[in-house]
Amino acid sequence: MAKFPYLVIPGKDRDVYKPWISVNLDFPKTHKVTPLIWALIDSGADNCLASWEIGLWLGIKFKKQAIKTFTAANGQPFTGFQEKVRMFFSGEESFCDFYFSKSIPVKAPIILGQSGFFDRHKVIFNLPEKELEII
To answer: pTM (2 decimals)?
Structure first.
């Protein structure tokens, strides 16, 4: 069990609180591990996503991976290349499929979704207390 505070994003009219945790990604084929990167926990995302730049940094050669088309929250389609990576957070590690895409914004370079994250962890969102619990 791990608890994380929501991160505050100062806003013009009001502050916004988001469920972010810091993670490392490891690509076993190159033995490269990212430094800690903020990841958004997004219950509306079907899969785990990461920016194209993170994939390049890990040494992933985007040639033979499965390509999947997604639809963003704004209705725009985008594609992602599938690769299995190891994710570390809060003393835990697990292998999961990530989809690397040029459409993932720099402000949210990793998005943790249903397949790969929620299917392995119980997540309790507690916005009134501005706290997130992962079991």
So the answer is: 0.92
Q: What is the pLDDT of residues 108-117, one digit of tens each?
A: 899 999 999 9
In a domain, 50, yes or no: yes
Q: Give residues with Cβ within 8 angstroms of 31, minimum separation 6.
A: none
Residue pLDDT, tens place only, 53-73:
999 999 999 887 778 999 988
111 neighbors 103 (Cβ within 8 angstroms): no
In a domain, 16, yes or no: no
At 42, which CATH number? 2.40.70.10
Helix (H) / strand (E) containing 54: helix 52-58
Looking at residue 75, the DSSP 8-state letter turns out to be: S
